[in-house]
Amino acid sequence: MRRKWIIIAGSLLLVVGAIWGGSAIYANVENSKSLDQLALSTPTAGTGPSSTFDATSIAGKWHVADGSQAGYRVKEVLNGQNVTVVGRTDDVEGQATIDGSTLSAATATVTMAGVATDNGSRDSQFQGILKTQEFPTSTFVLTTPVDIGPLSSGPVSVQGAGDLTVAGVTRPVTVSLEAQATDGGVEVQGSIPIVFSDFGIDAPNLGFVKVEGTGTIEMLLQLTK
What average pLDDT does range 3-7 have in this prediction? Predict the structure, then answer.
């Protein structure tokens, strides 16, 4: 009898080990495919803002141009293994107004149906959770002016306050912004940490795999006049 229980216990350990090992392999593969955080481009020699890019040329109305991206970054936990999931889209629109050295207004709107990962099943679940048929867009609106005075001399990093609307729910958020002048205009990278429950979103939990209750919204905006 004792030998029987030893065999059963050993078999269970092998099964658990196989599951854990398979999950670890899956996590490593998925994490190796995970996209890096959106970031400002690195100017090459001979490029970048010209000497005439000053407070006068910065001021005015700007719009979000081609090459802009937005999306999300979340953590899935599969049998104890962390997997980073990143969804992206280039279906982004918006405007910004700069008065003198102040970013006085900014809006970015993302069409949610275009946000995709490398997994169609995951994307279908994402669309359902965020009720994208009922609420097809998510929007960020800057609510507090931000000083970007040093922009003409190099990249700047600032914090801003705004309203984020996801799945029809609007909440105040803090956005971390990095911006730099380019030959084509202004490039802005932003990240917003969010708690899903603040927007009435239930993070999926299937037992063996669940999504953490927090995540990050990322954007990289190319602004032109």
Answer: 43
